[in-house]
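User: Please predict structures.

Assistant: First:
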Amino acid sequence: QVQLVESGGGLVQPGESLRLSCAASGFTFSRYYMSWVRQAPGKGLEWVSGKSGEGGSTKYAESVKGRFTISRDNAKNTLYLQMNSLKPEDTAVYYCAKDHENGGYDYWGQGTQVTVSS
């Protein structure tokens, strides 16, 4: 069965960095577009970034462009999100999600908490 397991969250101060990982299993990872989606306290889901299966297409939300970098290692079935210059408004639970071929997402991880606070 499909599993997505995030790790790497934590508590950091503004301006610091974190690297999130998402270990995928149960499907052919390299064939699918993968995304990072976050949910801040009391708010709805916000798409953060996505990357195509072979890495040719990468997109970012305006709120993180220039600070976050998405990458993937298809040999390790792992998706990453390098987050630099973190801001308090980046505080959220971060999820990785497998994009459905017809739109939306069909599988989600359990999420990892990122807290940016001084």
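Second:
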Amino acid sequence: QVQLVESGGGLVQPGGSLRLSCAASGFTFSDYAMSWYRQAPGKEREAVAHILNMGGITNYKDSVKGRFTVSRDNAKNTIYLQMNSLRFDDTGVYYCAKRSRSSWINSEVDFWGQGTQVTVSS
């Protein structure tokens, strides 16, 4: 069965960095685009970053452009989110998500990870 297991969350000060990882199993990882989402307290879940099945082409939420970098290692069935210059409003639960196609365009999320908490606080 499909499994997505996130790790790397934690407490960080504003301006700090974290690297999230998501280990995937139960499907042919290199066939599918992947995404990172987040949900802040009291807010809806929102897309943060997407990456094509073979990597290379990515897409970001405007507020994280230049600060976050999504990448994947298809040999390790793992997707990453490098987060730099973290801000208070980056706080939330971060979810790894499998898309239904090789691209995030015209596709849907068909499986979610359990999430990992990121807290930016001084």
